[in-house]
Amino acid sequence: MRAWASCRIIAGMRLPSVALRTPLLVLLVLPLGCVSPSKSAQRKPAPSSQRSTTASAQRAPTPARAAPPEPRAAPASSAKDFALEMVQAHNEARREARPTPKPPLPPLVWSDAAARQAASWAKACKFEHNPNRGDLGENLAAATPDMWGTAQVVKSWADEASDYDHTRNTCRKGKVCGHYTQVVWRKTTGVGCATVLCKKNSPFGASFPTWQLWVCNYTPPGNFVGQRPY
């Protein structure tokens, strides 16, 4: 069974008064496998003081082999508060899934194992998916420091609900919805996340050298081809 993946880049910039909505979306989608955001992330930064980007991917499991990267800066909030906020934000999104799931989606619980995997990968400060994450789903987000809190990160994934066609079980044409479908995947029961401040590998270019990365891993993983989230 193969899982599908999607990557989305959001530039937090304001546009002239044209028939486009803010923020500007640059989308990369493949029906199978993970799409690396690296090429799109090399686009010249827009003249803005804040930028953000998200990515989501799930795939067939592979053994975890990578050694833990060197440590980077720790998040500002306590680990306990961060875990609580992440679980609450995910479960709020699951309660608000549309169309309404019947029966309701079970709430997620915090997974220490998924959180350890997320933390190990986040320390590498790479805005790309962990190829050695094993049997885990994964959502990523990146922004300039202090732009997003925990709730805003999960909301950026959940907001893709408007681009998901539940009847056809597809993203709307030209849109990305894989972050949302992972968040509301019925068979997923646990989530573990990590966030770090990075000073290298900025997906926003040299104008924004310091950035914040979020990694959430999910167990069991979602987004399997041919299956509905619920």
Q: What does this protein structure show overall?
A:
Residues 51-65 have a biased composition (Low complexity). This protein has 230 residues and is an alpha+beta fold. The protein has a domain at 79-219: Pathogenesis-related Protein p14a, CATH 3.40.33.10. It has five helices and nine strands. It has a seven-stranded mixed sheet with strand order 2-1-3-5-9-8-4, sandwiched between helices. Strands 6-7 form a two-stranded antiparallel ribbon. The two termini are 17 Å apart.
Keywords:
7-stranded mixed sheet; 230 residues; alpha+beta; disordered N terminus; 20% helix
Short description:
With 230 residues, the protein is an alpha+beta fold. Helices cover 20% and strands 22% of the residues. The longest helix has 17 residues.
Q: Helical residue percent?
A: 10-25%
Element order: H for helix, E for strand: EEHEHEHEHEEHEE
> Which homologous superfamily in CATH is the superfamily of the domain at 79-219?
CAP
Radius of gyration: 16 Å
Task: Give the topology.
Blueprint: E1 5-11, E2 24-30, H1 38-41, E3 52-57, H2 79-95, E4 109-110, H3 112-122, E5 137-143, H4 150-158, E6 164-165, E7 170-171, H5 178-183, E8 190-198, E9 211-219
Parallel strand pairs: 4-8
Antiparallel strand pairs: 1-2, 1-3, 3-5, 5-9, 6-7, 8-9
Helix pairs in contact: 2-4
